[in-house]
Design goal:
Number of helices: 3
Structural class: mainly beta
Largest sheet: 6 strands, mixed
Number of domains: 1
Radius of gyration: 21 Å
Low-confidence stretches: 3-19, 35-46, 190-197
Mean pLDDT: 77
Length: about 210
């Protein structure tokens, strides 16, 4: 009996699966940036910032408090938190650049109130003009490098969580909650102490320290 030749069908990946970026990379970016292992590529006329309608925001945060020059205070070294903000369309694919603003609230999880409610320890507000200057490209794509000077930092604070709110030019809001964030020892200087009786609100209107962006 003659055997008919068999047609081998190769499995094909869908177009959407090829577009999606590896989600595990998002959690690696801040640590790699802090260690100096990532050299952000230069952009040119053939590599424009991708714009589009924002549907979701994703933020990643480094677990280590770092000391870096704070442009808002004459370049004095100050403790702060480092993170990356990415904006996406309907899918987690290529990050977008938009013309909105950011508000980040920091909560100290080492002190819980009886009601379970707590006021933010710090609040940072980044206006659209400043945020646009913080746009940098990394292995994920275009995003925003955030250095948040922590004026009320104490070494005894070992666990926090951050709530980021991105507000588009039209006023639409998108939220990104860090969840519990266990902090490692501060890098650089140590022993910086500060206290505040109420929320410390800072408006960031200067470029992120250069040593955190390339």
């Amino acid at each position: 009996m003659e055997l008919l030749p068999q047609k081998v069908i190769q499995p094909q990946r869908s177009q959407s699966s090829r577009r999606l970026c590896p989600l595990w990379l998002l959690s690696c970016v801040p640590a790699l940036m802090l260690s100096g292992c990532v050299h952000l590529p230069k952009t040119g006329p053939d590599d424009p910032m991708p714009h589009g309608q924002v549907y979701q925001a994703v933020a990643t945060w480094n677990h280590q408090v770092v000391f870096a020059p704070d442009p808002a205070h004459g370049g004095m070294e100050a403790p702060g938190l480092v993170g990356r903000l990415y904006l996406f369309g309907p899918e987690i694919s290529y990050p977008l650049i938009d013309d909105g603003s950011v508000v980040v609230d920091l909560f100290d999880d080492t002190k819980q109130t009886e009601e379970g409610q707590q006021a933010p320890l710090e609040e940072w507000r980044i206006d659209p003009v400043t945020l646009k200057r913080l746009a940098k490209k990394d292995m994920i794509g275009w995003g925003y490098t955030l250095f948040l000077p922590w004026g009320t930092y104490k070494p005894s604070i070992s666990q926090v969580h951050l709530k980021l709110r991105y507000v588009t030019e039209k006023g639409t809001q998108f939220f990104a909650d860090s969840g519990p964030l266990s902090l490692n020892s501060a890098a650089g200087k140590g022993g910086h102490m500060a206290s505040a009786s109420k929320t410390n609100v800072q408006t960031i209107s200067a470029i992120t320290p250069a040593n955190l962006t390339h």
